[in-house]
Amino acid sequence: xxxxxxxxxxxxxxxxxxxxxxxxxxxxxxxxxxxxxxxxxxxxxxxxxxxxxxxxxxxxxxxxxxxxxxxxxxxxxxxxxxxxxxxxxxxxxxxxxxxxxxxxxxxxxxxxxxxxxxxxxxxxxxxxxxxxxxxxxxxxxxxxxxxxxxxxxxxxxxxxxxxxxxxxxxxxxxxxxxxxxxxxxxxxxxxxxxxxxxxxxxxxxxxxxxxxxxxxxxxxxxxxxxxxxxxxxxxxxxxxxxxxxxxxxxxxxxxxxx
Length: 258
Prior knowledge:
Elements: E1 19-20, H1 47-60, H2 74-86, H3 101-114, E2 119-126, E3 135-137, H4 142-150, E4 154-166, E5 171-186, E6 189-193, E7 206-208, E8 210-212, E9 217-219, E10 227-228, E11 233-235, E12 246-257
Parallel strand pairs: 2-3, 5-9
Antiparallel strand pairs: 1-5, 2-12, 4-5, 4-12, 5-6, 6-7, 8-11, 9-10, 11-12
Helix pairs in contact: 1-2
């Protein structure tokens, strides 16, 4: 599958506002463990298709109607969308291990194109492996995230990691990861919808902070680790974090449709 990538390289396509909330209330926040959905393994590892579906449902309701599958209700349509995204032909979500960056890229592009739309931009910025032609850099590009969110044709998702910090060594040891939907921003803070039950069972928007890391190393068994932690961000504020873990922004995926 060929990937469509147009990088920002610091060039704004339009004046970016200092805050953007227009999508917050109208973007769903689907709970990945919703019992009505009947996802494999109770949805424990369905954060990626759930997070992506939040944005695609918004786009479907704002000019890209063919993205929405048939369903008697909005919820039924979104459940169907998540199952399609998670299918082996798209994200190939593993019910025990989740969805990696390359699989999210494949799933987003395949789903959008199967619906009959074209992608103007699809890019990933971060340290995790991804198709070369969509990689915009090894550090999360927050300007690209904000620009995509402020664009009525755009969407963005964060891939965060759970790390255990060791003060003696300065190492952050990665133990797992998670996907969330970006729905807006306010100054330097991002507004997200988190599909995890840690964030609660009702509709909620979380304001998360991003603190630059100046020293230390990211370690773990994943490809591209270990590496310097400098240039990455600790995610704080209202982010719901696994017990005794530090949440670090590993990367971000952004998409803009034609």
